[in-house]
């Protein structure tokens, strides 16, 4: 019996990280800009849920404008919950899977987990005087985009070192601590407020209709687990993600898990159906993504034996969020778009279909 | 960033499989015996739940005899559910993990999944005429224990081939089909009836007290998922196990997962805390095992920050089930026993603590 690493995994990993790293210099640049100019705080009134809700059943999905996407969702939910009908799906098989970055919350100018990892790197720098001689580190600190791009591999290694060696309990604390203090470089809100209001309503509607809602993300489960229960109402054991290398050890009489550089499993692209099978054990009937990394997850869902619904968020709203698709170096939506057209998947336009993007800022709600 | 297989995983894998294979020749031998003599059908009246229940709170855990094990369980549950007390644990943190083979159902003369895999091998033989020349195959068919023991590696390879290449959907069907027809070689009951009645009562009691119950087993999740919901009331997504290699493919317009020889993750020994962290994301407060493969899981649970309970089933009942512990080549209970003594874990004696072993046979209930 062989015991080999799947040959395609390192390639997928490299691809995933390359996409993230390309995003990294964008954020470095934008953060630099943010130091000089203050981006406008979004107008809360424009984002108030329900403000734009019109058409039928306005009380459900109030931040979804009436249109083909909203209609497809409501029709699908009605079909699978109508007892006695040919399209009925029993509650235990109502599995809904959502990508996270770009589907449930924003992912520009780079996935927020990468921003966290970069902050960890900066925080770890005093303990690594040798980094001062590193071209990648100097480029990162100087926001030197072109130099950073040349020294990607070195940056990856430093990121890896800065985000390993500690126990999972310690890492968990550092994530929680970061999330309470960090804010988005241009939107100036805590990251956990940059979740999509229409999706929060959809998650609630699905649960009210007996669905089990799961996150299936290219990020790591441990990063997401610290905040998704409060943000989305999704429990920590319903988060499927990329898996860091871990070993079990006894330290000071306590059993702990220690993080090591590298990943055992990359939950992206063709890895997503594998991650779904391993964690959930059943084929989903609803899948929601936003990029080529979600293509196989949507395909696996949509080619199942019974009714299914596959959806993609199209980021076409530069004014209220960000606009990027086929040409994006980060989170490209190209092949999945082609397959959506071919197979009749639902493409959700942020601009047209969503009356609001983010929930009201907590600071505004407190007033 | 490196992408290497954890160096200790192949060793653990080999260890696990070796233990299983040693069991394999025992079962081959016993199956041969079973062809000649009919073992006595267990006396259902001796196994009737509640028949022996005595002492306090007899209505809960009726198949557990009053004693220190039952007392420890009831005290622990009372402590963690008493609101306002220092030992109170909120429901979302009431995670209970159970090993499967030897803890929730029998595992002698070999883990039942291995018996299934051997049956798959025999069924696949006509498609592999080259196996007729294999010493391992001939030894298996002839129940030749010593020859089989000499050709272990070859047997492993055949097992691997016979249990891969098909899709997970096809494999799932073959498991379900096997479970409906196969019976235990000496107990002559369907395998899914060889679950432990006292444990069924404990699972119910835990759930009634707000616990989330998970299986964490060295077997594969996909084998267990087909029957654990009906047998234990545990949903398919609460099963953590060893993970076979899988790839996602399109076949005839349908997205499928194809099984390949070998494992990506071995959920045994020090792998169990890793599997728990990845799937559940929280440290359990109750863990129940029966062998050295569960030692780290119990240790990880028992060294957590709050109240915890670690338990081991001791198979000391040759009359009603099987008797094996420190010297067993399969599912040895030795190091974990030492640690149980040292740390005060609860050792449950099947002979003393369990009034019944199995539920009433379904055939008897139907009468």
UniProtKB/TrEMBL annotation, chains A, B:
Domain of life of the organism encoding this protein: Bacteria
Keywords: Hydrolase
One term of GO molecular function: hydrolase activity
PANTHER family hit by this protein: PHOSPHOSERINE PHOSPHATASE
Protein name listed in UniProt: HAD family hydrolase
Organism from which the protein derives: Pandoraea faecigallinarum
UniProt lineage: Bacteria, Pseudomonadati, Pseudomonadota, Betaproteobacteria, Burkholderiales
């Amino acid at each position: 019996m062989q015991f080999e690493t799947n040959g395609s995994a390192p390639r997928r990993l490299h691809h995933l990280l390359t996409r993230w790293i390309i995003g990294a210099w964008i954020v470095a640049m934008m953060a630099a800009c943010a130091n000089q100019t203050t981006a406008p705080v979004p107008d809360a009134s424009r984002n108030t849920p329900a403000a734009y809700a019109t058409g039928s059943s306005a009380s459900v999905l109030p931040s979804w404008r009436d249109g083909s996407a909203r209609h497809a969702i409501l029709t699908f939910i009605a079909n699978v919950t109508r007892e006695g009908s040919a399209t009925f799906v029993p509650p235990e098989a109502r599995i809904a899977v959502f990508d996270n970055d770009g589907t449930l919350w924003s992912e520009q100018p780079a996935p927020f987990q990468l921003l966290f990892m970069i902050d960890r790197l900066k925080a770890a720098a005093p303990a690594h005087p040798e980094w001062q001689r590193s071209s990648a580190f100097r480029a990162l600190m100087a926001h030197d985009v072109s130099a950073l791009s040349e020294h990607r591999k070195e940056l990856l290694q430093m990121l890896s070192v800065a985000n390993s060696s500690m126990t999972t309990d310690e890492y968990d604390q550092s994530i929680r601590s970061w999330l309470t203090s960090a804010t988005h470089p241009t939107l100036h809100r805590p990251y956990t407020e940059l979740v999509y209001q229409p999706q929060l309503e959809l998650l609630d509607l699905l649960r009210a209709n007996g669905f089990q809602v799961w996150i299936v993300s290219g990020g790591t489960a441990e990063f997401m687990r610290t905040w998704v229960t409060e943000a989305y109402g999704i429990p920590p054991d319903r988060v499927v993600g990329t898996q860091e290398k871990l070993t079990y050890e006894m330290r000071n009489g306590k059993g702990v898990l220690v993080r090591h550089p590298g990943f055992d499993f990359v939950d992206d692209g063709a890895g997503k159906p594998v991650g779904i099978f391993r964690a959930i054990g059943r084929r989903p009937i609803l899948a929601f993504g936003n990029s080529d990394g979600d293509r196989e997850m949507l395909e696996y869902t949509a080619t199942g034996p019974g009714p299914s619904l596959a959806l993609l968020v199209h980021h076409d709203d530069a004014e209220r969020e960000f606009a990027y698709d086929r040409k994006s170096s980060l989170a490209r939506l190209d092949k999945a778009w082609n397959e959506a057209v071919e197979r009749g998947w639902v493409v959700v336009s942020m601009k047209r279909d969503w009356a609001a993007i983010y929930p009201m800022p907590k600071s505004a709600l407190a007033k």
